[in-house]
Amino acid sequence: MSAAHFSSDAQVEAIGLRVLACTLPKAEWTHAAHLAAAAWVIAARKDLDPARDMPGIISAYNVASGIANTDTGGYHETITQASLRAVAAFLASQPAHTPLHVACNALLASPYGSRDWLLRHWSQALLFSAAARRRWIEPDLGPLPFAG
């Protein structure tokens, strides 16, 4: 994983704005972009409640990108809510006035930057179940290391 995915706060903001506008090209909706969009919403969009608003934002983005939100694809509630909690906890742990792109790069270099970090807390069967996709399901392997 690259040590520096983002070179400016404007780059992170552009991802967030294009996700909100449903204009980010599907090919650019990478793991890094998911985390950057979450970080931007948490840090910069105080008018949004991430836990409440991101499900609709992601679902709308998926539809606009041709991705159906079903029991087997598209929006995933447990992954989204766990990721939002991880990003919020990580951002809160950063020194005051850390530029958002620097925090995003550090997040991506941390254990939460790994695509499989959730599998330390959820079994694959539970995490990828239709139930976990539809609603929040508590971890079955071990609690998350931050408040929920």
The total count of helices amounts to: 7
* Whole-number count of domains: 1
| Global Rg | 15 Å
Number of strands: 0
Shape designation: globular
Let me know the average pLDDT.
96
Strand content: under 5%
Largest sheet: none
* Class derived from helix and strand content: mainly alpha
Q: Give the % helix.
A: 40-55%
Helix/strand order: HHHHHHH
Which residue ranges are poorly predicted, with pLDDT under 50 across at least 5 consecutive positions?
none
Distance between the termini: 27 Å
Describe this structure in words.
This protein has 148 residues and is mainly α. The protein has one domain. The chain has seven helices and no strands. α1 (9-20) crosses α2, α1 crosses α5 (100-109) and α2 (31-44) packs across α5. The longest helix has 17 residues, at 77-93. The radius of gyration is 15 Å and the shape is globular. The mean pLDDT is 96.
Features:
mainly alpha, 148 residues, 52% helix, globular, 7 helices
List the helices and strands and how they pair.
Layout: H1 9-20, H2 31-44, H3 50-64, H4 77-93, H5 100-109, H6 124-127, H7 130-134
Summary, kept brief:
The chain has 148 residues and is mainly α. Helices cover 52% and strands 0% of the residues.
